[in-house]
Amino acid sequence: MELVACAAVLVLAAVAALTVLSAVRARIAAERIADQAAVLLAERRPLPPTLRDGAQIRRDGDRVVVTVALPMAVPGMPATESAAATLPR
Question: What global pTM score does this model have?
């Protein structure tokens, strides 16, 4: 009985760790894409299709907001991560 409870706790801890790592990875990707998109838009260059793969990019005045879906979503937790970057002048 104790072994089953211990295994269940370990599984929950592993799922929690994977969820956190997945969110961190998505946040880093969103920040990277937001920075690249802000530079390209400031230079009035088009955004390449590869930059949009897996990300939703929108411009809000002098800011670029990028939303990236998490590869592993857990019910009750956010399914996306967002990042914003200001266009350089």
Answer: 0.83
